Amino acid sequence: METLLVEETFLDDDFLRQLMSVGEVDLLVGIPSHNNAKSISQTVTTVEDCFQQNFVRDRVVIVNVDGGSRDGTSEAVLNTPFAKSQNSRGLSSLRTLHRITTRYANQPSQGAALRAILAAADLLRARACAIISPETSNFTAAWVKSLLQPAYRESFDFVAPLYSRHKNDGLLARNLVYPMGRAVFGQRIRELNSGEFGFSGKLAGHCLNLDVWREEAVRTSPEAWMATSAICSGFRCCQSFLGPKVHSLTSSGTDIVTLIRQTVGTLFWCLESQPSFWMERTGSEPVATFGPEHELTSEPVRVNRKRIFDLFLSGAAELSDVLRSILAADTHAELQRIATEDDRKFRYKDELWVKTLYEFAASYHRAAIDRDHLVQALVPLYRGRIYSFLQEHHDSSPEDIEAHSENLCLEFERQKPYLVERWNAK
Amino acid sequence: MAGSPETLWYKDAIIYQLHVRTFCDSNGDGIGDFPGLMQKLDYLQELGVNAIWLLPFFPSPLRDDGYDISDYTAVHPAYGTLENFKAFLAAAHDKGMRIVIELVLNHTSDQHSWFHESRSSRDNPKRDWYVWRETDDHYQGVRIIFLDTERSNWAWDPLSKSYYWHRFFSHQPDLNYDNPAVFEAMWNVMKFWLEIGVDGFRLDAVPYLVEREGTSCENLPETHAIIRELRRRVDQEYPGKMLLAEANQWPSDVCSYFGESNEFHMAFHFPLMPRMFMAVQLEDRKPIVEILEQTPQIPDSCQWCLFLRNHDELTLEMVTDIERDYMYDEYAKDKGMRLNLGIRRRLSPMMDNDRWRIQLLNGLLMSMPGTPIIYYGDEIGMGDNVYLGDRNGVRTPMQWSGGWNAGFSAADPERLYSPLISNPVYGYQAINVESQKRSQHSLLSWMKRMIHVRKSSRVLSRGSIEFLKPSNHRVLAYVRQLGGEKILVVNNLSKSAQAVELDLRQYKGSVPIEMFGGNLFPRIGELYYLLTLGPYQFFWFRLRRF
């Protein structure tokens, strides 16, 4: 009973009081933060610039949810000066621009942050919302508009971002999350797991009321869960092009193990929670896209491919027994075989990669071993795949890479019956 | 001149604005007149107003609703005689009501004898009473005010073959105040009416009196000098009389018309008016607080004049482009409702006949710092007719009853100076004084109570204002204070119920007494004071210590 009460009061009284003062809004921008004092003022200013430029008549609020910053992040949100007026009389926007802030916990949790923002959106009856990461240093007012506008004006419920990326950036999305998510859930959303996205008030209310908030997958990486929830519940999804994404210099970044645990773990959990939706689904459909569908750059960058390959070899060797319990025998054997290849000839081909992932997903379903350990066991294999990708595409043009990505997606779709078969195997 | 309580009467006034033509027709010719108006003084007294501002009633070709005057010292025959006016004035004074009349200083009608003489010959002694030039390239860049009808501030006179200057319609030539004889002539006009006993003048189009090359020809120092001299003479020879400026300018510019208490006694606060409408539509106090915080202090003896609607379009000159677009979209979706830079509608239709919103706006009008003006008919929620040209849609006959011609006139309906409002919502059968007098809950009865409460304390007419700024932006709260007396005003600008926590700690120990019902509210303590308000509800509390 006590637990229930705690769950029912996850918004503190002060935050409720602030929400009461704001009242109904048209647009809400949520900014989850943790020790972002240096960059968050610029984030707030940019969001308010967007409001002034594009939504001057609309009721707007910025909701900062903080995970226990000790550097005065929330104070920086509140103390950021309001934008100077555009006219000589000193008269600024039509309406009051609201900023409210709350501390949801003493430890950062993406899920808890999103939950607080969804609750605010629901209570304020926001029509369109966007989440903005203060760690993205180059975001502009146009980004905010691009995330809000489809939900606000075009009745979309989930707005995934599209970024301009270097061909070697976003490899997890390109090699795993996008093609697998597309094949499983049937919609071609490229960025299922991003720090920036938009959504409707209707979707916010729907997600808020799902009994998932204690799930580890939702707590650590709720973005992909929200996207797949939108797809599986029949909400209208779209993509909106933002531009190049650059992380803040102050951003700590996330190591690959944590990234895989959060992203792939959540993706597998989404499969687990929505089997009736995806099992019967074949192929995939494009979604409405605002702006260019993708944009790749290919200027030369240095990547330590040798180290990636070494980590693959050592990881695959160390985890050989674990991998044997996860993968089918022939898949495991094939992996063993390619691991013996000369690094210059090494290729982790699409067919094998898709098979590997589907077998991991099925094992996750069966909980053959501890699910977290299972997901972590994918890390060396992912390194192998990335090494292969970098080798193969060292000199590829953006068009070549895009063509390859499409082939990978089709391979995931082609092998989907295999996933279903493994999933349903006793 | 620091006024005595008696000379500061305008600070405590509740002004009722009307045109004699619109109010009551006593002789059945279809046009309102002074005898008819005199019959209705009891109504105005009962309403609680204590000053009447009369729109121009002078002889005029009536091409600008009387602002084109052809004789400053007579009464237009359609409205009665000078004797009728004097009788009306005496009756109003007997009832404790002051009378403020119009004085159009800037220009005359082109039918005025002064202009006839001036244009008759270049050698005429009155030639220099107007602003004549051989070419129309003087004062380049000066804005044109009536954009919808005028293309230049110069008009060609074929008679004297030269151009004359006009800031308004081309049939309204501007007087030339560089000629001292013009000033003396207008002072004689003022003296004429002051001798008869009027209590003040509303001076029309004040900023435009003097022209100078290379300037905007507005608010020039020479214009202020003219006003100062008029004021000096009024104070010296007719103490207690009031001058009200019509200067549609930003507060910082209008303030200069108060001078050092040596120009106008009062001036309209034009930028506040549209922002009251904006705030209610936006459900956000920001527009009101922002403009009042930008309004400079004015001398103690001076006062702002506040209004919601008047005989003109709701002017949107003193707003930003974004604000103007918003006002048009929200209040004048039909383009026929727009005129010049404004909206030609009455209060009630603008509020979509929502009683609560009408009351809230009147509550704001009566509780903001300044003297309120009620435009005739707005106290019963009269409608407008946007299909009549110019601003005539807000100048239709007063609706006294549901009977013949709304009780305005015994004439045949076709003979009325203007059609009556007769639609099912705002028509005289539905909206009229007689029916509203019969209900204690009518808008008219509510207005009477509101005016009564407003007049019960000088805090609202003379006190300072301090905004409280609670976190709920849909609530506009302020404390008016005069000496030790304080009134707390709390307005819910929203269409939904609101809770608000007010930081009233500096009034700790005071007991709020709601001024309409006289009920006590909990004593103010250390904690934030919580109030809940229904949609568009407002409270006025007297803060008392017991």
Explain how this protein is built.
The complex is a heterodimer of chains A (426) and B (546). Chain A is an alpha/beta fold and 426 residues long. Chain A has helices at residues 2-8, 13-22, 37-54, 73-79, 110-123, 141-153, 171-185, 201-208, 216-220, 222-232, 256-273, 275-278, 305-318, 320-326, 329-339, 350-366, 371-392, 398-414, 416-424; strands at residues 27-33, 60-66, 98-103, 128-131, 158-166, 197-200, 237-244, 288-290, 295-297. Chain A folds into 2 domains: 2-289, Spore Coat Polysaccharide Biosynthesis Protein SpsA, Chain A (Alpha-Beta Complex), CATH 3.90.550.10; 305-424, no CATH class. In chain A, strands 1, 2, 3, 4, 5, 6, 7, 8 and 9 form a 9-stranded mixed beta sheet that branches. With 546 residues, chain B is α/β, with parallel strands linked by helices. Chain B folds into 3 domains: 9-106 and 177-455, TIM Barrel (Alpha-Beta Barrel), CATH 3.20.20; 113-165, Alpha-Beta Complex (Oligo-1,6-glucosidase, domain 2); 463-545, Sandwich (Immunoglobulin-like), CATH 2.60.40. Chain B is built from 16 helices and 21 strands. Chain B has helices at residues 20-23, 34-39, 41-47, 82-94, 113-120, 180-196, 221-237, 251-254, 272-282, 286-293, 321-331, 347-350, 355-367, 433-437, 443-455, 459-462; strands spanning 15-18, 51-54, 98-104, 132-133, 154-157, 162-165, 200-204, 242-245, 266-268, 303-307, 314-315, 338-339, 342-343, 371-375, 464-467, 475-482, 485-492, 498-502, 510-514, 529-533, 538-545. In chain B, helix 9 packs antiparallel against helix 10 (286-293), helix 9 (272-282) crosses helix 11 (321-331) and helix 13 packs parallel to helix 15. Chain A binds chain B through residues 17-18, 20-24, 56-57, 59, 87, 89-96, 98, and chain B through 250, 278, 282-287, 290-291, 294, 320, 322-323, 326, 470-474, 494, 496, 498-499, 501.
